[in-house]
């Protein structure tokens, strides 16, 4: 199943795709990583056809347009845009928010804007920009041969990767603080044992932050050996099993909540 096979709508800077006519007890909103698209998350609705899954194309990715004056890729602005799209599309049921790689911090900010957010799933932490810089520059140099992509890449570099504006770079410490201060339950699903990507929680965060994250009551960490940074591509079955278990957990919690009222 691809995003083209889902019912889609463009809301502001965001493209949203959903499984038509699904009205389960919870809704899962999934956001892709940098330089990827909603179609890369299509395994989620395919594996859970009875769940209401919304896949999101962020600006400049997939079918979502990018305009230089549209607000860039600041996580707070992205969270505001996605919150408006979700609200307008009437996702008023309990929400599970999934962020892949750089969308993780956007999912955290989104949880703070939506009172019906119940759980945040992070598909690996963002790559350490100092470790990924050579590979990122290769991608940028290739894309910069296409004039239409230059403004998009400049905004992505400035607002998230921190290649141009150091003050805007998301650091391991700032990200760890946001995770710890989040009032929503969080599951971090991380890959391990890949030389070219983070090896679990410890590769991006320093030891002090790592221990703080592992000790937080609202944060659960699931490590999938051999998955690296691209969990759904490298270890799809194990990753989907972990996501499905979280969905079941949230559904049971919502049913218990309803019974108590």
Describe the protein's architecture and organization.
The chain is an alpha/beta fold and 261 residues long. It has a single domain, classed as Alpha/Beta hydrolase fold, catalytic domain (Rossmann fold, 3-Layer(aba) Sandwich), CATH 3.40.50.1820. Helix content is 42%, strand content 19%. It contains 10 helices and 8 strands. It has helices at 43-47, 75-88, 103-111, 129-143, 147-161, 172-181, 201-204, 207-215, 231-234, 236-260; strands spanning 7-11, 14-18, 27-31, 52-57, 95-100, 117-123, 185-192, 219-225. Helix 3 (103-111) links the parallel strand 5 and strand 6. Helix 2 packs across helix 3. It is globular and about 45 Å long. The protein starts with 6 loop residues before the first strand and ends with a helix. 45% of the residues are buried. Residues 128-140, 162-168 and 193-202 have low confidence and may be disordered.
